[in-house]
Structures are given as C-alpha cells and as structure tokens.
Amino acid sequence: MGENNNGKVYLTRERLTELERDLRELKGRGRTEIAQKIAEARGHGDLSENAEYDAAKEEQQHLELRIAKLEETLSRAVPMDSSSLPNDKVYILSLVKVQDSRTKEVIEYRLVATEEADFDKNKISVTSPIGKGLLGKAQGDVVKITVPAGSLEYKILEINR
Q1: Fewer CB atoms inside 10 A, N or C side of the chain?
Q2: Could you tell me if 30 and 70 are in contact, meaning their C-beta atoms sit under 8 angstroms apart?
C-alpha cells in the first residue's frame, strides 16, 4: 500500500463488483465447505493426531485471512469512473498506447490501482516502474523508464479512457 492516497483504494466499478462477489462467495460457499471438511475430519476420531483435521483448520485460517483482506480493501474502496478524467495527460485508468523506441513494438497499457493490476491483461499499477514513468505525461512525450530488467524508452502515441 505504498501509494500516497490517504488509505483509499481506487477501483473501477467492474473490479469493485468482482471483489464484492468474491467476498460473498468466500463468506457463503467457502465457509460452508470448510465447516463440512472440519466436521468430517472431526468424525475420524482423535484430533491430536488427525492430519486431515489440521489441514482443514489451516485452510479455514487462510480463508478467513482472504475474507479479512477483501473486507479491508472494500472498506477503503473508492469507485472511479474514467469518463470523468481528462485525456490530456496519463492518469489512473488511462489507456495508454506507447511505442518502444528500440523494438518499435506498440503496446497498450491500462493504468490501475495496485489491487487491480494484472500484467497478463496489460493492467499495470500506477506504482509500478512503468506506471510511475507514464503518469502525468502527455501524448508525444518520450519517457525513459528504469525497470528491473534494464531500461525502456517509450513514445506515448495515444491516451484514452
């Protein structure tokens, strides 16, 4: 949570809905399934030497941690609508089309909050090296970004919502 956002978590409406659905699923079906596993393991006798019971209790702890983390994230969530942001510069929720100056490859990134980042879907966190390098820049700007694998140079071709 290294973002300087006063503890707020900025999420798209879609991601907020997805997290709320996940939380309902974990609290409902997830807890029910764990309770059944614990009850079944308890029925196998002596709990002091019951590996199945220990595994079920550990799974329950992991489930409760996931629920607590989701609840904490949702309690700080602020839904964002990209249509209310200008297109003059790169902001959170911007869809940025860049061209790698070395390879000439064109890549499109969506800048999102850390909690929503998914590199496989080209959703990068505003706190990542690339995200930080693009934030506040305008169309036509050339940015040099240091990443763990070295250095990148991108030209910003387009900024959309």
Answers
A1: N
A2: no
- Both tokens of 6, joined, read 């006063």
State the angle between helix axes of 51-75 and 31-42 in degrees (0 to 180), rounded to the nearest 10.
160
CA–chain centroid gap for 72, Å, is 14
| DSSP secondary structure code for residue 5 in this structure | S
CATH of the domain at 113: 3.10.50.30
Spatial distance between the Cα atoms of 94 and 147, rounded to a whole number of angstroms? 20
Q: Is the dihedral of CA 20, 26, 29, 32 positive or negative?
A: negative
Number of domains in the chain: 2
**What would the pLDDT profile of 2-51 be if each residue is shown by its tens digit?**
444 567 887 888 888 999 999 999 999 999 999 999 999 888 877 777 88
Per the domain annotation, does 3 fall within a domain?
no
Question: What is the helix (H) or strand (E) element at residue 20, kind and residue range?
Answer: helix 13-25
Domain with 121, as residue range(s), is: 82-160
* Greatest pairwise CA separation for the chain in angstroms: 70
Predicted TM-score of the model (pTM): 0.63
